Amino acid sequence: MKPWKLLETNYHYVKSHPVEVVVLPVGATEPHNLHLPYGSDAITTERIGDLICERAHALGAKVALLPGIPFGVDSNLLGFPMTVSLNPSTLDRVIGDVIHSMETHGIRKMVLLNGHGGNNLKNTLREYFGKTGMFLSLVEWWKVAADRYAEIIEHSNGDHADEMETSVVMYLFPELVDLALADDGAVKASRFEAINRGWVQVTRPWHIVTTNAGVGYPKKASPEKGKKIIDIVVERIGQYLKELSDAEINETFPY
Ligand SMILES: [Zn+2]
User: Which of 1, 6, 107, 137 is deepest in the core (most CB within 10 A)?
Assistant: First the structure.
């Protein structure tokens, strides 16, 4: 039994071990090029949640990992078969109900652990800011070790099923990756230069922009690269969870 993992722990343990911080993984269900599982964002984020809570628990933090939300905002990937999408407002409502449930139990600190770029959870923080006694913070795990990517990753300009993400899934779930199936992850340019330059933003229709849902060249991925990234991610977030668990909430929190 992992005592930090709510789905595996029992009431006997929970009764005598009060929780300070809850972690809520939020993923997505969508294709990832041809070689990664549909659940990449969901299962990876939940596994990272497990690893960071394990680390924080070992440091003495009072953390609990909630079951992850397997669906994310994917309206622009619905052109690919079997994608599942929640509207941003639906996802907000679900997270809001989880916040309310945890508040009912006296918990004041929640970390949203995001694993999907389409989930704009900074807006969720703002949606509930000032309306709840819960201190909400957001970690997008793929950003945590970004300052080290240049030394670990060869092709780091992608953002979906690219070398970085493929390496992480290969490390955590080697049995679910078949790298030989991957295409190059090339993306189509827009007819508008302003969109290509990035100062005009659109919701990209993924089935038109990509060939097989991948963005970024994945073929130099390896489980060794994935381990390097995950080790940094787990150490850094585990430390944050420990500090958050120990911190006392006052009027100026978190400053
Ligand atoms: Zn992904």
Answer: 107
Residue 4 lies in a domain: no
Q: How far is the CA of 207 from the centre of ligand 1 (A)?
A: 15
Tell me which residue range forms the domain holding 110. 11-246
In a domain, 1, yes or no: no
Ligand 1 mean position to 212 CA, how many Å? 13
Q: Separation of 247 CA from ligand 1 center, angstroms?
A: 32
Here the CATH number for the domain that contains residue 60 is: 3.40.50.10310
- Which tokens hold the place of 65? 């990992």
Taking the centre of ligand 1 as the mean of its atom positions, its distance from the CA of residue 7, in whole angstroms, is: 24
Q: Model confidence over 45-87: pLDDT tens digits?
A: 999 999 999 999 999 999 999 999 999 999 999 999 999 999 9
Mean pLDDT of the chain: 97
Distance 160 CA to ligand 1 centre (A): 5
Closest CA to 110 of 24, 188, 33, 50: 24
Q: What is the DSSP string of 200-242?
A: S-----HHHHBSSS-BS--TT--HHHHHHHHHHHHHHHHHHHH
Tell me the CA–centroid distance for residue 131 and ligand 1, in Å: 31
Residue 112 maps to a domain: yes
Q: Is the pLDDT of residue 156 over 90?
A: no
